[in-house]
Structure formats: structure tokens, C-alpha cells
Amino acid sequence: MCQVDEEGISLLEKKPSFGASSRDCMKCGDRAVVIARIKDAFCRSCFLTYFVHRFRATFGKAKVIRDGDKVLLAFSGGQCSSAMVSLVKRGLDQSTHKKLRFTPALIYIDEGVVTGQSKEERATTCQKISDIMKETGFPWYIASLEEALEIPAQNSSPDTCQAGSSFHSNQDPNTDELAGKLEGLCLETEHTQRCRDLLASAKSLTAKQDLVSNLRNRLLVHKARQLGYHKVAVGDSGTRLSSGILANLAKGRGASIPVAMAFADDRWSDVTILRPMREFTTKEIVMYNALFNVDSLFQPTLATMAGDYASIDTLTETFINELQTNFPSTVSTVFRTGEKMCTAGSDDPDAVRRCSMCKSALDTSVGISSALSATRFSLHISRKEGSSTNENSCKATKPDDATCTDSSSEQCCGQGDGSCHSNQMKSVSAESLSKTLCYGCQVTVRDMKDLNLLPSYIVEESAKIERRSRMRDEIKDFLLCEES
Amino acid sequence: MPVSCRLCGGSAILKRPKTGDALCKDCFFSAFEAEIHQTILDAELFKKGERVAVGASGGKDSTVLAYIMKLLNERHDYGLDIVLLSVDEGITGYRDDSLETVKRNQMQYDLPLKIVSYEELYGWTMDAIVKQIGLKSNCTFCGVFRRQALDRGALLVKADKIVTGHNADDIAETVIMNVLRGDVARLRRCTAITTGADGALPRCKPFKYTYEKEIVMYAYFKKLDYFSTECIYSPNAYRGHARTYLKDLEKIRPSSIIDIIHSGESLSIKKDVKMPTQGTCTRCGYISSRPLCKACVLLEGLNKGLPKLGIGKEHKERKKLALLQAQSFNQTIEPATSANVTTESSTPSSSSIAGANTVPQRIDF
Q1: In terms of CB atoms within 10 Å, which of A33, A353, B266, B326 comes out highest?
Q2: Where are the alpha helices (DSSP H) in A163-204?
Q3: Bridging pattern class, strands B279-280 and B287-288
Q4: β-bridge partners, B272
Q5: A319 and A379, same structural domain?
Q6: Where's the tRNA(Ile)-lysidine/2-thiocytidine synthase N-terminal domain (chain B) (predicted)?
Q7: How many CB atoms are closer than 10 A to CB A189?
Q8: Which of A163-177, A289-303, B14-28 has the lowest mean pLDDT?
Q9: Of B179, B256, B266, which has the smallest distance from its Cβ to A245's Cβ?
């Protein structure tokens, strides 16, 4: 194995080196330092021009930001969001005609609870992050992931008080005060334990990752609302979005691909999520960071060191990255394909029923010949649930004849008579919950051992939708026209 | 400890890949058959009195398909007239063996069988094509030709419909492939259970929601006779990536396969995206989105000694062809030799195949 083959070495030497060093910048002819996209060689300054222009163009094309809009930048400390913050800073320093015209602020969500970090570890991370954020000169905020569990259901009375232990600062507090506050931020609350229980209840890493991203998105939107922002920018790169397209496809979330990769994600009525980094590959972002000394902070996540086959997300990421190495147009092809997709029957955005978990359009009212009804039939035929042999018994609309159908046995205490006793107080039945969930979220929920641990914003909202639809059923004969 | 069947309480013999339930042999059979029947009913695949051609390759999917179509037709009185239809691609050591299986099936199930071959339809066997094109891109020829061959065979036996054994895994794989290749037109079509209803013959896939593993299980426990060898020319690298990815997904979450199909079904393509419009081929009259259908372009390439004509960038190959024709035109004028100089003889690649230039350049169907 370790033998040195003379032939091999001479062959390797003969191979023309395809590095940037041997090429000239395609713009100005200077010596190139990086290769952007597939084979565009750039020198340092032309790369910067290209990069900044592309960033501005992404905003410009979308026309969703108006002069003076307040935009909350979701900052995780990672490569992508660090580059985004750096680009925004650059954009605000530009001369007038190229200047970005919005007012930014930063928000960091500490996810230490996910990887089981101690209070001290989390405080240290927050300290480091706050140092980076302070340097930008923008207002900044810090929140911790478990605060998502305090979020009240949407449409309930607007919560005006500054809830939770979030810490925010517009000015520069002195260092001691800051340290104390950061310490307080990461205090173990009842929610910290609940958040741990929630994640422990998910049987697969795929479900865990879905839950974490759900909590994170909810919290971002919630914080934005509280702080009076209507736009949140996240740092997702084109590479990540492409692998997200494929992962969503694999998770049965095909219907949410269009919103999940759009520049402006409008699934929340009052807060829009923006993805200004979507035109860049991760490689370009890392090159930008390296060339222009943009600091980033590596932080472990659930998927760190978990291996390629640990979850659908990790597998897909590996798959896309490997393909990208061999076929350099993979990411852009997948990305463009995603851009051409739209959800079936989404003409009126206000009229669509939305999933109570991920807020994407509900994709479960499908015809009789569909994957969903075929799966229901399979479950029915190989379990013969209930006494009825009618296929509709698995789509039971009345909760009283629901016998924990299409739930795996772990979710139910196994009473079999429809009375789930898995929780003494109020138990969440998979049956009624899944009626308000999209297909993909139903799959996620199926991987949960205890549904009672789900955040109240999901459960309460689901119950509310359920009550509304029952009310509607009662009065439907007297309604003169369809209203959403 | 023996596991008991979830349905009848007897001793279970397998765990259903689709639902994870332990079932005994008989309960699995009845569940499997009931599901196919339900799919056929739900999608209204057939009408009474129709003649249905079952695409039979001798592989597991089509063997089980032929078996179950006959079974359900009798059990539920579909009133269908079922014929087996096979395509002989002309692959020595693969298709000749699998066709033997089909012939055995024909006798076992007592169904009429029709075999159409690439040789008689196109004048080329796959063996000859591979000699020309090599092991790369040969699957493109085979796939394009097979699609037409099935249609032509079905017309010959006067069938109203073609059923194929494509299973859930195949469809999920195709969804992924079409996303990776950026083929939005096919992405939209590929999850439909019946395709081509507006064009020539409708094709349907009763196994659309059936896991490949369950088909194998069914064949295994029913002791059905099928041929299971990979095609000797098969290694289609790119599809291989998609297949590996899908198998890995299935390991992580067994429902992924059906989840992908659900995703495919709930997607549609934005209205402002330019879509190819379906027309007919000016040469052979088959459905095509371009003036010439793919099969005609591929065939023209083969016959003119430029097998790459239909693969990759057509205009580049067309340029080469024009150049070649101009050269041979000059030759015919200047030395004024025989008037029927064929372009094939001027390219070295085709000279390796004996009789390549005796093939008619155009075939009327």
C-alpha cells in the first residue's frame, strides 16, 4: 500500500495544475486568486466586486425591501451568516447609489440546549458571539432556543411584554453588566428541561433536526414580532438550499419546497423571511471569508460527528456535495429546478390552510388516487384498525371513533378503545393533531414518542383549528358563501 | 420468540417494509393483492373489455405484474384481455436468457405473448449499438428505443393500454433524477399513474405505490419464476447515484420512498416556465416535443456513423455531419466515382461493424 511507484509520481507531475495560481483574472487580467462559480478566475478585488454586486442584485431583483425597512439578521456565528453580516456592513458603507437602504440589527439564538452544553459553556459562547456582534455597531439581541416553548399560539392576544430571558442591547453596556446578563440568559429554566425532553422524545435524528429548525424559525419570527421587525434575513447559501430541496423531497415536504427556498418566504403572515445568500455556493462564501478576514465561530450541532447516514439531512448534504465535486453544475441545476416549482393549487395565498407546525400550505387534501391514501390503505389493510372494514375508518373525522389510527404503537398507551392514557392531564392524540399538520410534519410527529411534549404553539393552534372547523361544520348549512 | 401476525395472530413470517407490520404469508398475500386492486380501482386504470398489454421483461416486477393482473382480472372480474408484450433488445447473455423466462411465464399463466425486437424495428441490436457507442450513454439508446418498441408492439397486438411493472422505488428514483437533471417537464409527468393518455397509447403503473422489496417478497413466497441478472451493459453511472441515495434514504426512514412520491404529487411547475409542447415527429409520426423524435435522431446518428448525434449537444454533431457530407459531396463530384457514397465509410468508428452501412437509413413504421 505504501509503496512508492515511480511511474505514478511522474504521471502526477505531468498533470497540468488547474489552480488559480496559473490563471489570470477574467476581468482585469491580473493574477487570479480564486475560482468562483465553476471556472471563473478572479483576482481579489474583482472577486469582491462580483460578490458584493451579486448580493445587492439578489435584494434588488426581489423588490421586497423598501427604503428604511428594519431587517433582523439571523446571526449564528457560522460562515454563511458571518459573510451576510459582513456584506450588509459593506453595503451600508457604500457610496449613495449603491447603498443598501435598510436598517439592520442582529439576533443570535443560542442552541446550546440541543447539544447538551452546560450553563457555563453556553455563557462563554454567548460572550464570544456578543463580542463579534458588538464590533458591527448594529443593535443586537440574544435569545435562547428554549424560549420557543414559551411562544403562545398565534392569533391569541398579542403578547406585548418582553417575555423570557432574552437579552438585547442597543448601546454598549459595560463588560461586567454584560457578563452578568449573559449568565442570566442561559439559566436553566423549566423550558430547558422541557426542550431536552422534547428532543429526547424524537426517535430519529431526522425528526430531531426538523424539530430544532422548527423551534428556531418560530423563535426568530416571534422575536422579530416582539422587537417590531417585519423582515428577518437568514444566511442559507445556495448549496444548503439545494440540499434542502432534495431533503424536503425525501421527507415528503415537496409542497413546501417553493417557500423553503424562495428569497422571500411569506408563510408567516406578518414576518417575511429573506434569504439574501441564496445565490452563493458555500465554497464562494468560505472563499470570501478567507480573503477578507471575516471571522466566524464554529459551533457543534446535532449533526456534528453524527456520520453521513445519521439523518436524511446529513445524507442529502453528503450526497449533494459528492455530486457537486464530480458534476460541478449539480447545485445550480437543483436550485433552478426548485425555483420553477410551485405548490399545486396555490393561487390565493390567503385562502390556503396552513400546517399548524411548519406553516406551509397543507398538502393533505389529495385525491383518492394518491400516495397518502395508498399509505392509509396499506396501514389499514395490514392492521385492520377498528371494527369497521370501511377504508374511511382510517380517515375518521370524528374524534370519538379515532382509535389512535396511523400512529405507531409507542404513541398510544394501547388501550385500544380510543382512550389514550399516555398522559394523565390532557393528552394530545395523534389523530386529531395530524389533521392540522402537513404530510411532512405528520411524518416527523410519527417519530415522536410523546406528543404532549410538543410546543404549545403547535398543540394549541391545532386544537383551535380543530374547534373552528367543528364550529364551521355545525353552521355550514346556513352559510351563504365560502369564506376562508 | 416467534412473532405473531398482526392480522390473524398466527406465526408471522415477514415484516412489511412499507408499514413495518409483522404478517404471516397468507395475510401478506391478501394485503398485497388488495392494495394493487385498490390502486387499480382508485385510479380507474381499466375499463371492461379492454385489451391490456403487460410489458414483460422476465424480471421480478413484470413477472409479478403478469401474475397479479391475471389473478385480479379473474378474481374481481375486470373483464380484461391480457397479453404479454416483450421487447428483445438484442443483448446476448442477458435478454435472450430473460426472454426464456417470459416464455415459461407465458405457458404457466396461459397468456398470449408477443415479442418485438430492436433488430426488426430499427435494424440495430443493442450489441451492435454498444460496439459503436461503447459502454457510455448506451442506456440512452436502449431506453428511448424500448419506449417506442413497446408502443409499436402494443399497436401490433391491438392493445388499448400498456401496463408496466414500475414500482414505487422506480418512481421515487425518477423524481430524484429529474430534480438532479433539472428536467421540469418530466418531473411534472413522472408521478402520474397513467401517462400518455392524450397521445398514443396510455400506459399505467399499478405498482406505483408498491415497494420493490414487497414485490420481491411476493415473488419469493409465491415461488414465482423470474430472471434476476443485471443487464450486462447496465452501469449507468448517474442513475446509480440516485439509486444509492434512495436506498440509503430507505435505510434511514423506510417511508421515504412513498414520501418522495407524495412530494412529487404535490408539486407543480410555475405557469411562466417554458414547457416543451408535444407534437409529432416529422419522420416517423411518433409523439415528440421536437421536429424529430429522439429515436429518429439516435437512429440517424447510428446510421450515419455519428452515434453521438442524439447525445449531448446536437448542433455540434450536426456541424460535424454537415462537414462530412460536404467532404463526401466534393469527392463525388471530383473523382466522379459511384454516386452512392455513404458517409459511414468515411468514419473509422463504423467500419468496425460489419454490415453497418447496409442498414436502411429510414424506417417507416
Answers
A1: B266
A2: 175-185, 190-201
A3: antiparallel
A4: none
A5: no
A6: 52-230
A7: 17
A8: A163-177
A9: B179
Q: Which residue of A has its CA nearest to B45?
A: A369
Q: Are residues B188 and B87 in the same domain?
A: yes
Q: How far apart are CA A218 and CA A154, in angstroms?
A: 10
- How many structural domains are present in chain B? 2
B56 is in an annotated binding site: yes
- The verdict on residue B12 lying in a domain is no
Is position B327 within any domain?
yes
> How far from chain centre, in Å, is Cα A376?
28
My answer on whether B72 and B151 are in the same domain is yes
Q: Does residue A114 fall inside a structural domain?
A: yes
Give the domain extent around A200: 64-339
Q: Report whether A323 contacts B238 (CB < 8 A).
A: no
For residue A443, which residues of chain B lie inside 8 Å, CB to CB?
Answer: 253, 255, 259
Asked if the Cβ–Cβ distance from A342 to B268 is below 8 Å, we say: yes
A99 and A221 in one domain?
A: yes
Q: Provide the b/e sequence for B171-191 (b: ≥16 CB within 10 Å).
A: bbbbbbbbbbbbbbbebbebb
Q: Is B198 annotated as a binding residue?
A: no
Percent of chain B with pLDDT over 70: 86
Same domain, B130 and B166: yes
The alpha carbon of residue A74 is apart from the nearest alpha carbon of chain B, in Å, by: 29
Q: How many domains does chain A have?
A: 2
Is the same domain home to B62 and B204? Answer: yes
Residues A145 and A222 in one domain: yes
B55 is in an annotated binding site: yes
Tell me which chain A residue has its CA closest to the CA of residue B274.
A340
The CA distance from A234 to the nearest CA of chain B, in Å, is 25
Cβ(B343)–Cβ(B309) below 8 Å: no
A420 alpha-carbon distance from chain centroid? 32
Say whether B170 counts as a known binding-site residue.
yes
Residue-wise pLDDT tens digits, A154-175: 654 444 444 444 555 544 455 5
* DSSP reduced 3-state for A154: coil
Identify whether residues A322 and A209 lie together within a single domain. Answer: yes
Judging contacts by C-beta atoms under 8 Å, the chain A residues touching residue B253 are 204, 206, 251, 312, 443
Strand A272-274 and strand A264-265: the pairing is antiparallel
Using DSSP, state whether B279 is helix, strand or coil. strand
| Shortest CA gap A254–chain B (Å) | 4
The pLDDT of residue A418 is 44
Picking from A334, A344, A373, the nearest residue to B180 by CB comes out as A334
In a domain, B11, yes or no: no
Establish if A420 belongs to a structural domain.
no
CB contacts, 8 Å: A328 with chain B: none
In a domain, B3, yes or no: no
Q: How far is CA A259 from CA A256, A338, A443, B147, B184, in A?
A: 6, 10, 19, 36, 18
Same domain, B316 and B238: no
Residue A377's closest chain B neighbor by CA? B35
- What is the model's pLDDT at position A401? 37
Task: Give the confidence band of A426 by pLDDT, cuts at 50, 70, 90.
Answer: low
Instruction: Provide, as residue numbers in chain B, all residues whose Cβ is less than 8 Å from the Cβ of A414.
Output: none
Quick check: is A54 in a domain?
no
Q: Do B35 and A374 touch (CB under 8 A)?
A: yes
Angle, CA of A53, A55 and A56, to the nearest 5°: 65
Distance from the Cα of A383 to chain B's closest Cα (Å) equals: 6
Residue A215 falls within a domain, yes or no? yes
pLDDT in tens, B347-364: 344 333 333 333 333 433
Which of A245, A250, A439 comes nearest B256 by C-beta? A250
Residues B191 and B311 in one domain: no
